[in-house]
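Quick one: Major allergen Mal d 1 from Glycine soja, structure tokens please.
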Amino acid sequence: MGVYTDTNEYPSPISPSRLFKALVVDAHDLIPKLLPHAVKSIEIIQGNGGPGSIKQFNFVEGSQVKSVKNRIDEIDEDTFTYNYSLIEGQALKDKFASIAHEIKFEAAPDGGSPWVVEVE
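--- reply ---
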């Protein structure tokens, strides 16, 4: 199995609290509505949505990836930090046992929030 590390930063005019709520807390409801051409549904298949829970992302027909499962490792609404591991699905391509993501939404001087995604 291989190891790959990458860090990206994405600027946003939206405050960290609103962005965190939309992309993390309410993702299972909001993302399929925002991206109906890509995401069919997001289901919490184990747990209550907190650490240790498993979310399954189901993609639309014709997508290269049918579904993936993510395990929530940490979710902190005070620091706007979300860590999860992709643990199952075609995205692993038999090259990785899992892919760990660390996402942090930070306040910017202009009121927006760059969000940093680290993948390992």
